[in-house]
Amino acid sequence: MDIPNRYHSVLLDEEACKGCTLCVTTCPTEAIRVRGGKARIMEERCIDCGKCIRRCPNHAKKARVDTLAEFAPGGIFASFDIKVALPAPSLYGQFSGEYSINAIHRALLECGFDAVFPVSRATGPIAREVQLLLDRKRHPEIPRPIISSSCPTIIKFIQIRFPTLLEHIVPIIAPMELAGRLAREEIAQFLAEAGTTKSRSGALVSAGAQHSADTKSARKPLSVGCFFISPCSGKITEALAPLGNEPSSVDGVFSMKDVHLPLLQALQRISATPADTPENALPLRDDQPAARAREIAWGRAGGEAEATVNGTEFRYLAVDGMDQCIKILEEIENGKLEELDFLELMSCAEGCVGGPLTAINPAIAKYNIRERERRLGERAGQHHSDAQHLRDAENLRDAENTPIEPGSDGIPGLLGDSARTLDCGQCLRIEEYPARPALLLDPDFRTAIAMMDEMEKIYEKLPGLDCGCCGAPNCHALAEDIVRGTANLNDCIVILKEQYRELLEKGGM
Amino acid sequence: MKYHYEVPGDDFSRAGNASAEMKKTLQRLGIPASVIKRTAVAMYEAEINMVVHAGGGEADITIEPNLITIEMTDHGPGIPDLAQAMQDGWSSAPDLVRELGFGAGMGLPNMKRNSDEMTIETGPDKGTKVTMKIHVPEAF
C-alpha cells in the first residue's frame, strides 16, 4: 500500500472516469469537481463516505485497499510472522445462515490468515464503557446526546460541518482499533506463556525444541500484523491515517468485496468436509449466545445503540444514511433532542452492511445479520421454534459449540475468546478530534467577506438550475469556485450558450 | 453583507432551512463555531415561531466584522403579552403544534439567551419584528 495522504482513501481512476457529474452531485460535502474532464476529489473535504464509489457507473471511484496477494513472498505483508484477520461484524451479513459464523472464521484462515480476532468481540467492552459514560450525574462533562464514535465518516463530517458537536462524540475508540490492540495483547501473552518462536520453515515451535545452535540472541521476536476486513472506505482512512495522532493497531485493510469470492470458495470447501474433526473445528464458543447476538448486531443499523443501552432505561436514537444523519445533527445543533442519552449515527443506509465496499445487497445483508441474531437469541432462550430445521442444518455443517482447537502452528485460530483479554480499560480515546474548517474562504475575515460578497454577485448571474454541467455540484458551488479562482463564469453552459448566441447575432450569421 | 430569506408559513419541514443555510455561510467566513451555533439556534427558534404563530415571514441577516444582526419580521397577530411570552415554558402554541414536538415555551427565552441584544416590536395586527444582535469576538 502506498503512503496514505492525510485525509482520505477514496481515489479516482482517471482512465475509467468519463467526466460525467453523477458523483459530483451525489457527494454530501460537495468535494468533487470535474476539471480537465475528470471528476477530481478535493482532499480536504472528502469524508470517505463512499457515495461516489456506489454511484459511479464506470467504477472510476475506488477505495485504497490492500490485496491478499501481498501475503505472498515479496508482498508488503509477507514479513509478518502472524497475520491476524479482524473481520467487521458486517462480514457475517455477507453470507446466508447456511454458513455459520464459525465457518466464516475458518474460511478466513483458509485465505491465508493465521488467526482471527472478531471485531464483534471488541464491541462488548466498548458498549460497557459507553454505558458508564451515559450516566448524566457521573458524567455531566459530556453534552447530551452522546454521539457514537464508531462511524469515522460521521466523525469527519462533524469535524467539517458541525464542529460545535465534536464534544458530543463519546471519548472511546472504535471497535476496529480495540480489536487490533486486544489481538496483539493476546498473542503476546500466548507467546510469552508458550515460549515459542518461529523456525525457518515458518512453523511455530516451542523454544525448548529448537536446535541448541539456535541461540536466544539469534531469535527475532515474532511480528504480528492485524488486517481489518472492511465494509467501507471510512475505516481504511481510520486505520492508515487515524483521526487523532495515535498510531493505529491495524496494518492493512481488505475490502469485503475483494475477499468475497475467496471466502465463498473456502466456505464451500469447508462445508463439504465434516466439521467435528479437531483440526478444522474452530468454533465461536457461544456460552453467552445473547451477548454474541448483541455483538454481531453492530453490523447493522441500530445494533450498536441497542447493545449500548442494553439492560438500562437510557434513551437512544439510531439513524442511518447520510441525509438523515445531517438532519439529526442540525436538530442537535439547534439545541434539540437533549433528552436523548445516546445517538448512533451511521453514514451508510442500513448501517455497516450498507458500506460501499460490501458485496451483498444491504437489505439482504441486514436480514442475514438479523437471522443470526434470532438464532443466537433462540439458543439463549432455550426455546424451540419453527426454525429448528434451520439450526439443525447449521449444526450439521458446523457446530458452533465445539471447543477451540489451536491451529497447526500453535497459535489459537480464534482469538478474543478469553475473558481475561476482554477485561480492559484501554477503550478510552485520549485525543480530541480537531475541527476541520474545510469551507473557509480565507483566514482573514475581511478577505473572506469580500469573497462572499463577490460570490453572491456571481450567483445572481447564474441560471440557478443546479444542473452540474459546469463540473460543480450546483450554482452556489460554481460561484464559490469562481471566487476561489478554480473556475470561470463561462464554465456555465447556459451562460456560454448566451455568449455564443450574442456572438452569432453580432456576426450577422 | 446582507442575506434575505423567506420563511414559509405552511411547511414545518422547511422551518430551519434558513438557519441551516446561514450556518454554512458563517463557516465560509471563518466565524468561530460557538458564535455560529448561537446564531443558528436564535434564528431557528425564530423561524419555528413564525411558522407556528404568524404564518411565516422574512429573515434578514447582516454580517459585519464584529456583529451579526438577525431581523425576523412577520405579519402575524403580534404577541399580546410580551412579558408572559418571555417566561420559560410559557407557550400559546395550539395542541396540534405541540403534538409535533414544538411549543415547549422555550422559543423566545432561547432566542434571548443566544443573542447579546434582543429587541421586539410587536402589536395587535401589526405583526412582530424581532431583532437579535450577536457580537463576534475580535480576536479570531
Short synopsis of the structure:
The complex is a heterodimer of chains A (509) and B (140). Chain A is an alpha/beta fold.
Number of helices of chain B: 5
Question: How do the helices and strands follow one another from N- to C-terminus of chain A?
Answer: EHEEHEEHEHEHHEEEHEHHHEHEHHHHHH
Can you count the beta strands of chain A?
A: 13
The number of E-state strands of chain B comes to 5
The secondary structure category of chain A is alpha/beta
Taking the alpha carbons of the first and last residues of chain A, their distance comes to 58 Å
Helix proportion range of chain A: 25-40%
CATH-assigned fold name of chain B: Heat Shock Protein 90
Biggest sheet of chain B: strands, sense, closure? 5 strands, antiparallel
Q: What general outline of chain B do the C-alpha atoms trace?
A: globular
Overall pLDDT of chain A, averaged? 84
Task: Show the helix and strand layout.
The complex is a heterodimer of chains A (509) and B (140).
Chain A: E1 10-12, H1 22-26, E2 32-35, E3 38-41, H2 51-55, E4 61-63, E5 82-87, H3 101-110, E6 115-116, H4 120-133, E7 146-147, H5 152-161, H6 175-194, E8 196-198, E9 204-206, E10 224-230, H7 233-240, E11 252-255, H8 256-272, H9 289-296, H10 303-309, E12 316-320, H11 322-333, E13 342-346, H12 362-381, H13 388-397, H14 419-422, H15 445-461, H16 475-484, H17 493-506
Chain B: E1 2-7, H1 17-29, H2 33-53, E2 57-64, E3 67-74, H3 82-85, H4 95-99, H5 107-114, E4 117-123, E5 127-135
Antiparallel strand pairs in B: 1-2, 2-3, 3-5, 4-5
Helix pairs in contact in B: 1-2, 2-5
